[in-house]
Amino acid sequence: MTRSAINRLRAAKPDAAAVDRFVARFTARHEVPIVEGERCTFLWRGEADAVHLVQRIVGLPDRIPLRRLPDTDLWYAVLELPEGSRINYQFDVRHGDHVECTNDPLNPKISYSPVGSSSACFAHGYHTPEWTFPDPDARPGELTELVVRSRALRRDWPVTVYLPARFRRTASYPLLVVYDGGDFLQYAAAKTVLDNLIHRLDVAEVVVAFVNPGDRLVEYANSAVYARFVTRELVPRLEAELPLIGSRAGRCLLGSSFGAVAALSAAYRAPDVYGNLVLMSGSFVFTDIAGADHGGGPVFDPVVRFVNRYRERPRRVADRMFVSCGMYEPLITPNRSMVPVFESAGMAVRFLETRDGHCWENWRDSLREALSWVYPGPQKLVYE
């Protein structure tokens, strides 16, 4: 096996100038971390008492120590990541009793989320899908704002509605309801993805309602109130005002993390309403032994009760279900475990495991496979 770049540098016993040249060589090409086959070398430079790589790959320590190259200010750690992997990470840098958590100053790849940002490592073979970038040839759809007066939620509720580029009142469209809709638009490029996939005929022309929670951890944790809002207020309002198919086959709920719990919960309460579900990295925490500690804290208690009940008595809540999860997420085991439960209820399930973590890029990258299976476009139908 060819020696890695960092090991060649170590063998040369470099001085400060050699370290400067080494770091400049890779940063100039935006190649930090250094990817050599499955080896990914993370670099940090500066004086410190200790530096740790902070990441969330299930099975690995959350904090991995970096080693200091002797007589230099260069620190490094090497991870072996399978081809096609993508992970988010940060560094913990300790000076005495002070620890600072920071993104990688040598890496311009940044992952954003509602709780902040982190650096991103693209392992060998991973590339951001080209259909997630704006395509000048794709005619843009339209985002419009709708306010739903909700008796269930006891307040007016804003909803963002996507209409495809060639929207016509004389046509009939399937409906997709997306939980955490604002975040999908901001962090998962949902409008760009829809424009591109519809333009390329991978996905049927579809109307999309992007909904948002108030208190997410309450309203998405098997809330009967939020499920009532979606099924009895939002969907009927949209079907009354827009040319939608208006049948089980033409309705789909999509959610990620707690949003996936909310989607399953709404379908569970209305098993004859939705024909399709897309559940990404669902927070399907459960216990096999009554009274066991599920490890999620009080916020997960209603989720665990719901998932435990569903596992005991599976119900057909849709016809087709797309389930995805990152291999590096702690949720991968619960999601794998739920697939045969869903299948046992008579639903057609497509399960996708990705080499990624619990993040918006993972859910963004899964949208083409999810949407083209739930609502396939003419191009997709030709090849299936």
UniProtKB/TrEMBL annotation:
Name the UniProt key words of this record, in alphabetical order.
Cytoplasm, Hydrolase
Tell me which Pfam families the record gives: Enterochelin_N, Esterase
Hydrolase: present as a keyword of the record? Answer: yes
Which InterPro entries does this UniProt record tie to the protein? AB_hydrolase_fold, Enterochelin_esterase_N, Esterase-like, Ig-like_fold, Ig_E-set, Mycobacterial_A85_antigen
Molecular functions per Gene Ontology: hydrolase activity
What SUPFAM superfamilies does the entry give? alpha/beta-Hydrolases, E set domains
Entry coiled-coil feature ranges: none
Domain named Enterochelin esterase N-terminal: residues: 40-91
What's the chief localization of this chain?
A: cytoplasm
Q: Which domain of life is it from?
A: Bacteria
Its localization reads: Cytoplasm
Cited Gene3D superfamilies: alpha/beta hydrolase (3.40.50.1820), Immunoglobulins (2.60.40.10)
Q: Which family does it belong to?
A: Belongs to the Fes family.
What name does the UniProt record give this protein?
Alpha/beta hydrolase-fold protein
From the broadest rank down, the organism's phylogenetic lineage runs: Bacteria, Bacillati, Actinomycetota, Actinomycetes, Pseudonocardiales
